[in-house]
User: Which sequence fits this backbone?
């Protein structure tokens, strides 16, 4: 069966590939949106911390024999702890300054992390196989679904929706939002706002590390794997609306699918379609699709 002159299985395969990429976009842009929305910091180090999560998963397997499932939990914890150190020692001194200072600081952190890992591992890819339980594929009748790619989409959706629910629908999320808007009032209720801010940054970068472990069997692991991806993710955040949690999730998934379909119908534009959409959105709605107009 053909759709617009293309075989249906090939079209669905590209759609799935786009959905997998969209899952990574959603996870990473969600972490960026959490950090910007609650801390007002443009975290350019997000791509490097995404890469660090993947490298830690590989190192855990290579040096300690730790399984994928163990590293799926351990890598985000380690990177989240690193994020806590970064926030407490560097970021907290620039919250009241212009956004450019946060951008430059996190860019410097990115260069340091990438430089250290390049000196250790070089730039060649590090192999990482999917866990045995997720290897192979499932025949759905109309297409062959690689089990691991299906897992990536499901795991990403669960984490994204759970994060949105906690921030938007729970008392903890209300405290987080209030603490960024009026910290003195929240502190009057006995809540430790600086600790809450620190843990928020740690959680945001832990999301990036979680996405890195998910990406390890799909994207070849290297110290540079986060560079190109983070540029697209920033575009996703801008299109969805800076600081919008649901906007980041929906936009990330949607743009991944659009990018995948573009590879079928007009491959030459697949690398630029996200940025073309960003330009149009900024012209029509500068705050983004889900952002709040000031």
Assistant:
């Amino acid at each position: 069966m053909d759709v617009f002159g293309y075989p249906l299985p090939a079209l669905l395969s590209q759609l799935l590939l786009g959905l997998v990429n969209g899952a990574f976009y959603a996870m990473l842009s969600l972490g960026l949106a959490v950090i910007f929305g609650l801390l007002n910091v443009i975290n350019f180090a997000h791509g490097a911390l995404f890469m660090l999560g993947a490298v830690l998963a590989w190192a855990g397997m290579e040096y300690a024999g730790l399984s994928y499932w163990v590293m799926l939990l351990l890598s985000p914890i380690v990177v989240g702890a690193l994020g806590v150190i970064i926030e407490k020692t560097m970021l907290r001194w620039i919250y009241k300054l212009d956004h450019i200072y946060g951008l430059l600081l996190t860019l410097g952190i990115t260069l340091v992390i990438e430089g250290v890992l390049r000196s250790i591992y070089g730039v060649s890819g590090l192999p990482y196989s999917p866990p045995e339980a997720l290897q192979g594929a499932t025949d759905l009748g109309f297409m062959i679904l690689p089990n691991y790619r299906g897992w990536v989409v499901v795991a990403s959706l669960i984490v994204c929706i759970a994060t949105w629910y906690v921030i938007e629908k729970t008392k903890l999320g209300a405290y987080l939002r209030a603490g960024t808007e009026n910290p003195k009032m929240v502190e009057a209720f006995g809540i430790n706002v600086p600790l809450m801010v620190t843990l928020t940054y740690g959680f945001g970068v832990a999301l990036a590390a979680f996405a890195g472990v998910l990406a390890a069997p799909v994207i070849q692991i290297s110290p540079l794997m986060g560079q190109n991806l983070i540029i697209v993710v920033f575009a996703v955040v801008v299109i969805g609306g800076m600081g919008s949690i649901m906007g980041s999730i929906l936009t990330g998934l949607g743009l991944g699918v659009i990018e995948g379909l573009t590879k079928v119908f007009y491959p030459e534009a697949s690398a630029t379609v996200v940025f073309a959409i960003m330009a149009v959105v900024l012209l029509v709605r500068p705050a983004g699709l889900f952002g709040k107009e000031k």
Q: What stands out?
A: The chain has eleven helices and four strands. The chain has a mean pLDDT of 86.
